[in-house]
Amino acid sequence: MQKLGDFKLPQFFNYPPYFTLQPVRETRDKQVQLWKEMILDYCRTQKIYVIGLEEDFPLFTNHVIERSLSHEARQAFLSALVSDGRAEWMDKSHRKCLILWHRVQDWADLILHFVKENGLEDSVMTVEEIRSGTESRGTELHGMDRTVLMRALKLLEHKGKLVIFKGTSADDEGVKFSV
Amino acid sequence: MRRRPGIGGLQNAAAARDQFRALGDNVAKLRTDLMKEQLSTFRSQLEDFARKHKNDIRKNPAFRSQFHEMCAKVGVDPLASNKGFWAELLGIGDFYYELGVQIVDICLATRPLNGGLINLEELCKLLRQRRKTAREAVSEDDCLRAISKLKVLGSGFEVISVGKRKLVRSVPTELNKDHNEILELAQVQGFVTVEEVERRLTWSPGRAIDALDSLLDEGLAMIDDGHQDGKRRYWFPCVSSISSYVGTDTL
Predict the structure, then answer these.
(1) ipTM, interface predicted TM-score of the complex
(2) Which of B190, B211, B218, B226 could join B240 via S-S bond, C-beta 3.0 to 4.6 A?
(3) A161 and A135, same structural domain?
């Protein structure tokens, strides 16, 4: 099986027609499904949070078979992920896409778990500390994308599990947990 | 006895005919009885054979295939019913039933990718992958038998020949001669272009496009506009020997 880094590429990736948007409905549905799964899997294993449509995202081109996804195809597959709630457009012109290989709710659950595991139920932490502090090392929270983290924190704030407050500088946002 | 004309004569002729007929019936009955006896001897010998070689039949596809041929010659169908001597002795009914179910599953799973036509080799490969832990090996002959049993159930499965390959069809799509010729042409590289079809089969442009588009509509073909030369290619998953593009775990 072909690999991209340590990622095992599924077989369909080597079949040229999959790089052309299929006109027949049933065939197209299957094509979209395969691409969605592969994109999510790849982003999850490589910890990729953002895909730029006009950039060189490795899955968009297969050099071995000399095929590349058209802009329209890229739009189609990413839009399908957005419809599934597994991605969000970051801009109106749909040039950047935030990939939620964990849903925001899943990230929120991970944060709650992290809080409980580390006895932080009533503590205060900066947002940065959550994603790069020593406690988060070895967990999925470590190194996570800040945008996604903020989304998860806002969700938890909405549920009354914490309060977000601004610190002394713009970079210094903090969180008071009340789990 | 001198033949006498008149009613008496007729009655005698009738009686004679009856006697001949009775004799004829007897002979026929004798022949049938003899045949039945021979057949029943054959059958019991076959049963003995099956009993003795049960394991070989189970484990060895080539042996199994020859056994089937033997049975066919004697007019015995071990798969005719799931009950009775054969099914119980060999458990062979279950084996083919199980295969049939797995074949249907695979065809359904790959249908969105190949439009309901899959080549036999591909099907067997997927079947074997699926049955990795099973004790019994599976041959193409086994697949064909399982499929013919499926046909009896009226499930719309059929095996068709295109060029050198056998394709298993699991949808009611009828392939006409034009379609068949394109599929045969496609076997060389896995795809065709309109130009190629026109040239090699000496068809008019309209005819080529119509046939290709209808194959596309049936889900049997996929388009590829990504080649440098800018020519559209029509790919046919059912003639490719690339393993299905569905991971085996999905099956």
Answers:
(1) 0.84
(2) B190
(3) yes
